[in-house]
Amino acid sequence: MQQSQAEAPLSYSAPRRRRRVETGQVISYAVLTLWALTTIYPLFWIVNNSFKLSTDVMNNSFSLAASFDMTNYINAFDRINILKSYGNSLIMSFGTVALVLIFGGLAAYIIARFHFRGKSIINSILVATLLIPAFATVVPVYDLLIRWKLVNTYWGLILPHTAGNLTFAILVIAAYMSTIPKEMEEAAFIDGCNRFNMFTRVFLPMSRPVFASASIFVFLWSYNDLFSALIFVNKDSVRPIVSLLNEISSQYGTDFGLMASAVSLTVIPVLIVYLFIQRFIEKGMTEGAIKG
C-alpha cells in the first residue's frame, strides 16, 4: 500500500506567467483617469449641490448633501417652466437633424457616386465653409429671418442650425458612401433600380452607422447652441433650454440650488442618451475608414 502511494504521480502545476506591465501603458491610464475625473467631478458637484439650499451651496459647496431634498427640482418646474423649454429644444433639435440628414444625405450621395465637372471645386468650397466662424454670419442671417418673418419662431433656429451643420454632414456621409463597393451599385442597376431607389434601398441602409453618428453630433450641437438661441429666438414661448439657463443666472442669480437643479435637468438626460448610443458614434466614424 505504501509502495503504491509512493509510485503515484505527483501533480504538477505550471507556473503562471506574470503579465508584463509597460511603463507607457501605466502613464496612459493615469493620464486618461485624471482627464476623466476633470469631467466627472464637476458633473457630480452640480448634481450634489442641486439637493442643497442656496445658503448651503454658498457656505459649503464641496460637502455631500445631507438628504435628497427635491425642493429645487420642484421649483424648476413651477417657477421657470422648464418642461416648455425642453419641448422647444427637442422640436428645434430634431427638426434640424431631420433636415440635415435629408439634404445632407442626398448631396453626399451625389458627391460620392457621381462624376461631374466642378466636383473638386465644390469639395473645396465645402471644406472652406468650415473655416468661417458662426459670428461672421449673424448679421446677414438675422436680416434674412426678419424679411421672412421667422424671428422668434421654431424655423428661426432650425434653418440657421441646418445651414451651419449641413457641410459637416455632407463631408462625413460622402466619405463613408465613397467606400461602398461599386459592385453593389452595378447589381442594383441590373435589378432595375433608378438613382433614387438605389439611394433609398442600397446606400441608405448600408450607411446607417454614419447617418446615426452624424445625427448625434448635429443634435448635440443644436441642443447646446446658446449664441444663436439668444439672438434668433429670445421669446419665452419658443425659448430653448440653454437660453432658459441664461435667464436663471440673471433672474435668480443668488439661488444657486435652483441653478444647479436646472443644469442637472439639462445635462443628465443628454448624457444618459449619449451613453446608450455612443457605439453608433464609434462605428460610424471608424467603419468607413477601414472599409473596402
Automatic annotation (TrEMBL):
Biological process according to GO: transmembrane transport
Organism placement in taxonomy: Bacteria, Bacillati, Bacillota, Bacilli, Bacillales
TM stretches of this protein: 26-47, 90-112, 124-142, 154-177, 198-223, 256-277
Domain ABC transmembrane type-1: 86-277
Subcellular location: Cell membrane
Keyword Zinc among UniProt keywords: no
UniProt protein name: Raffinose/stachyose/melibiose transport system permease protein
UniProt KW keywords: Cell membrane, Membrane, Transmembrane, Transmembrane helix, Transport
Pfam families linked to this entry: BPD_transp_1 (PF00528)
Membrane protein topology class: Multi-pass membrane protein
Family that this chain belongs to: Belongs to the binding-protein-dependent transport system permease family.
Signal peptide: none
GO cellular component: plasma membrane
